[in-house]
Amino acid sequence: MPTTILRADYAAPAFLIDTVALEFDLVPERTVVRNTMRVRRNPAAGRASNLELVGEQLEFISAAIDGHPSAAIRAHEGGLTVNDAPDAFELTITGACSPAANTTLMGLYVSGGNFCTQCEAQGFRRITWFLDRPDVMATFTVTLRADKDACPVLLSNGNLIEQGDLPDGRHYAKWEDPFKKPSYLFALVAGKLVALEERIRTGSGKEKLLQVWVKPQDLDKTGHAMDSLVRSIHWDEERFGLELDLDRFMIVAVSDFNMGAMENKGLNIFNTKCILANPETATDTDFANIESIVGHEYFHNWTGNRVTCRDWFQLSLKEGLTVFRDQEFSAAMSGGNENEAARATKRIEDVCVLRQMQFGEDAGPMAHPVRPESYVEINNFYTATVYRKGAEVVRMYQTLFGREGFRKGMDLYFQRHDGQAVTCDDFRQAMADANGRDLSQFERWYSQAGTPRVRVTTQYDEAGRRYRVTLAQDYGDASPAARATQSGPLLIPFSIGLVGQDGADMPLRLEGEREAGGTTRVLELTEAQQCFTFIDVPEKPLPSLLRDFSAPAIVEYDYGNDELAFLLAHDSDPFNRWEAGQRLATRELLTLAEQAADGRSFDMSDALVEAFRSVLTDESLSPSFRALALMLPTETYLAERMAVSDPAAAHAARRFARRRLSEALRQEWLAAYERHLTPGAYEATPEAAGHRGLKGSALMYLSELDDPADAVRLATRQYDIANNVTDRMGALSALMNAAAGKGGDFAKRPLDDFYARFEHDPLVIDKWFALQATQRGRAERPVIDVVRGLMQHPAFNLKNPNRARALIFSFCGANPAQFHAANGSGYAFWAEQVLALDAINPQVAARLARTLELWRRFTPALSAQMRAALEQVNADAKSRDVCEIVQKALAS
């Protein structure tokens, strides 16, 4: 049985490593690594006789203490022991690994003929024996030697201090990183690469060299990434006073990568999909994601690298904080500092992701606090809770203290902890001390799992002109995993406004205040139930609740349909304006889903149609906001909101609603499509993307019509004249949707053309696979058959995470109606692929395994088949990664 690691068992390391000198002789089949470390006892830890280093999949060659072989050194499975270790000594270990055979993509491996590393969380132990934990920080000097023809470029962390030629066609490069770092931030890249370079000056006048390294054929797709990096550097200086601290900053894009990117000090390694972009190959979403991810990894230079985690339970210390920083950066880049509507659009997008990914996680067997208390495999805790909910926890500090108070807390945090490995409590304490607040209750956001619910009741006293708001918090029907962590009420910053009958915000004055102050107020909910009374309220208002989504909570308030429509039309808070529409749509769709589950005919009111009409035709709203507001809740979200999840009923309900909206608003969709055409050269701007987004929404609704002739005509024309992949894919999606509805072959020619046009561009072919995996499908040809067929396609490669995610993950995670087929074919496919991936890349397999973790919430017929699939995987899986997931799911 795998060992469970507990946060309560943390102990400081018995030894520290001050310096590391690594020498690599890079050969794909067998790379020899010589590791020389200066080791000393940790005066802050208990005394231990032996030094215990960890190592995995390594070949031991030799070892020495202070230059001499020693019988005290013993290599064994899982590590290396130095018996009776001296108080301070130099330890040299020589070993070997096989990068070419490393399909896990952790440690040192080969991608497309180039050497690459991924060391977070525990990959460094696959390179050499080490104290592979984040609270052991050392300075690194790295010498790389390789064949000059095969590897003309040799990169590592820090500054290049020496390079030259060697005999037999080889060469070397020596790198020195002046900053102490844990081993998980080590990186090297070697191979045939070229770089886009740019020199900038920071605020202090220092010149910096920026490089984006890629394969030669991809150089023309690096401009957007470089521009994003430059903007990130300048924004971090302006917003937080944080300057780039190295003489050079490098980004490398590789095609085989388990994650999106990695923040290794000064040498960020990226998945190609998070770097490469031009209009012909990258969508508007790709352009936005690249800017966000480049910013995220650069911001880690301070929030993660200069100040890092004491242990892996503190992962959100760096990830939650840095996600918040990249969200603020992206909002600013879209005009969000001056434009509240643009900022709200970004906020809506972030909350959508939180609700789709993290709320479900909170409700299932993998529910865990932002700071987990235990794990079996740390790779399984790179989760939406740690990242996305962690970012919301950080955002609440800013909500409580304002931007100025938050900056004061950040300044104090760096002043106290630069160069250290610290905890979430250290960050919270810096925020508290900088703002003169006791935040002991706020700690529960880190230690309690589950999504809090806030029930709101109101009462208006017309004679006294008083409006009483009662807030009550609990966790509702939290999962057993979440309930086990809960100990008391949270400090919830609850933002509220009151909307008058004329649609205008009312000035807010709480009982006890001398005068009104503003039209939005952040109430601090600290008890299980609290009452807040607003005075001088001239008429009964309509409450606008949790404005800007001021806390990661579910609000329960009994709005009527007419009240939601009123807020959608008038609320001054853009987020809540969108939220009102989503509440109205969810209510209608859940009613339809109940009708479908009971076998009744559909009966839908006109409320949703009229609400959509008002948004679609309101030219005062930005196109990007309207595109989001006109997007119905997903089938997955609807199924999760049902008492018993029924994907088929959710699919039928959503399809009926889309068809009704397409028919009732046909002329409005056609007008919107024509009005938001974007002729001329492609522009990767938020404004242009908004127009393309609304145009694409209109086209998809038109493709739902019983007679999709207009959609087919417009989509075919759009595909043929498109000068960007956003329009091309939008057209192809609409054609595939129309074909699914009518059984035609409208999409065959463009689908074949798309492949022929882009067959040599892997990232675009990923999109081709994903489009087919997520299509609606037809009874005579279920999508599972399409997916199985595509797995035999010459372009499919299970070993490449991007390709596996594009086809297998898209089908299992983004096509619920087809995946949850009544015959269980989707579950059988899932089990096959989890086990196949487990033998190649356990980390990717574990991500796929999570698809069935909420199995108990489905209809009895589906849940029985899910359980059988889980039991099959549990019986045959070999990795800790997958076993932890399926065993927790089965035990839930």
From TrEMBL:
InterPro entries: Aminopeptidase_N-like_N, Aminopeptidase_N-like_N_sf, PepN_Ig-like_sf, Peptidase_M1, Peptidase_M1_dom, Peptidase_M1_pepN, Peptidase_M1_pepN_C, Peptidase_M1_pepN_C_sf
Pfam assignment, any one: Peptidase_M1_N
Domain Peptidase M1 membrane alanine aminopeptidase: 225-445
One GO biological process term: proteolysis
GO molecular function, one term: zinc ion binding
E.C. number: 3.4.11.2
Keyword list, A-Z: Aminopeptidase, Hydrolase, Metal-binding, Metalloprotease, Protease, Zinc
UniProt superkingdom: Bacteria
Cofactor(s) of this protein: Zn(2+)
Family note: Belongs to the peptidase M1 family.
Main function: Aminopeptidase N is involved in the degradation of intracellular peptides generated by protein breakdown during normal growth as well as in response to nutrient starvation.
Protein name (Swiss-Prot/TrEMBL): Aminopeptidase N
Gene source species: Trinickia dinghuensis
